[in-house]
Here is the input.
Amino acid sequence: MTTPDLSVTVGGLELANPVLAASGTFGYGLDLDDLCPPERLGGVVTKGLSPKPKAGAPMPRIAETACGMLNAIGLENVGVDAFCRDTLPTLVERGVTVIVNVFGASPAEYRAVIQRCETAGGIAGYELNVSCPNVSSGGMEFGHDPALLEELTRLCRDATRRPLWVKLSPNAPDLVATARAAVAGGADALSLINTIRGMAIDPYRRRPELARTFGGLSGPAVLPIALRMVHEVHRALPAVPLVGLGGIETGLDAVRFMLAGASAVQVGTATFRRPDTMLRIIDELAAYCRKTNTDRAASLTGALEEIS
Amino acid sequence: MGRRNVTARLAARRDLTEDSFSLRLRLEGAFDRPIPGQFVMIRPAGGSQPFWRRAFSVAGFETDGAGGWLDLMVKIVGPATQAWHELPLHTPVEVLGPLGAGYPVDQAHGRLALIAGGIGLPPLVYAIPGLARRGVRWDLYLGAATASRLVGLEECSRLADTSGGRIIIATDDGSAGERGLIPVVLERRIDAGELYDSLWSCGPMAMLRAVAEVARRRHIEAQLALEERMACGLGVCLGCVVPAAGGGHLRVCREGPVIDASRIDWSRM
Ligand SMILES: Cc1cc2nc3c(=O)[nH]c(=O)nc-3n(C[C@H](O)[C@H](O)[C@H](O)COP(=O)(O)OP(=O)(O)OC[C@H]3O[C@@H](n4cnc5c(N)ncnc54)[C@H](O)[C@@H]3O)c2cc1C
Ligand SMILES: Cc1cc2nc3c(=O)[nH]c(=O)nc-3n(C[C@H](O)[C@H](O)[C@H](O)COP(=O)(O)O)c2cc1C
Ligand code: FES
Here is the structure.
């Protein structure tokens, strides 16, 4: 068989392959250049960027759990200006598909990040991290309230014509309702899932492992939940492009997410365990396609067969 | 940058004290010579445990025609370090490294105090031959709770003989050397007239903080090798940070693990 075609399209955005680096696990795009060159990936989602630099949460910020980890980094980042000035030009020159992950404490902050990026140019699209509290109206997370989410998405939609993805929170009370709200607000695609709220305790010191007590769970521990959520949203909104993530470590994991309805996938925590994991996933995906006579990886999306 | 992810084999293991041991890994293929203070992240190949790799300072490195030998010293504190004590020889091991910033060996001059507590000896032992080549004179302060916990005494004595250093031992209970905490013993000696151009230390955070205090009071530069929990060791998870003087953070795995004490904001630590 000839080389399978790994290219995919996510809501109008063409990617050379369906494997992207997940936000917060690959730095700003060049941090792992020596071990995993970003241009070999379908794309890179940056660490979440806010209008101004942010110092993040106190230590300890991370804890190891069974088949996963908890993090409460508190969205530490260099700020959108530093990213656009110091890193973006090199990424663009190298031909990397860059998705900027955006967050803020208010809708205006989200829009400010996008507006700053629009002046820089070369960005492929945006992903809104809506798992943050809306400080400007009582602290409810944007991603937990469909009305708030729709309004936020619309405001960002009006600030750019580039692809706009909304990254759904698995902690929302009604996942499908938030998915619908993001689409109603103008999202081109939805990525899911962000981390699941969890906790770890040191029994001898009788203290939480994380300074913030609660943190977000990621890694293989969350994979079945993420897969279920991708499939649930795909069933409810079959026409909406999805980007699946949560615990992906192998090419077969990526295939599973695509069968469940994802057009592309992201890999996060697995990069910490092995920095070249994404390159291996791309190779394993190609091997799967060859083995199963799949000419185009894109044909895997939603190709799940139900048990009759 | 010289970081690589390679497969190695567990070539040898030797007990040092009742809860510490040395490991020798055989690296096949290229691996950049680590700078003393740099570390590696390792885990048994193929398996899924532990979830994160574990960080260990390089304690020795040699090359021959076919590859390299990497020496580590490990103290058993939990499941992963326990597992390394039992892992069969020849087991394949994934090694990521060399990582982070080491001691400024190239700028070392005059007279150094090397201060090791707990399992803090590996990077200092590895630094000594290079210091000796530069003609730097060194005093090694070696601290432990009690005599039986002093790691690597034999090796240090050999290094002292061959490269003209001195070893000062301190135990909390006085069962070997001077009685007291190592930073207190250090300051006592400085009071008594010892002159040092720099203090290089590695060990538990409480000891490093005390060494930083001595350095500040006596106007001596201090280079500290820090330890924090690490998920990636590569600078991308931001899980390993310490507060920086003047604001922001330093990543122990990238800007560190060896950090000038004056770059740390101890009040926010
Ligand atoms: C840069 C660096 C260099 C290191 N060099 C050495 C070395 O040369 N020899 C050596 O024996 N150990 C070294 N360590 C510490 C070593 O990584 C930990 O002891 C190890 O990860 C513990 O794993 P475990 O599963 O056995 O214990 P765990 O169950 O993970 O931990 C047991 C206890 O140790 C604490 N702990 C876990 N990880 C760390 C850590 N990274 N730093 C401090 N405390 C920790 C935990 O909070 C817990 O209280 C180094 C750590 C770093 C960051
Ligand atoms: C250390 C760490 C930092 C993260 N930072 C961000 C972030 O800044 N923005 C965001 O949208 N998601 C962030 N995430 C979530 C991941 O992008 C991803 O949604 C989640 O970890 C699940 O995927 P995984 O199991 O492959 O890691 C972070 C995750 C981790 C582990
Ligand atoms: S361990 Fe991940 S940034 Fe340092």
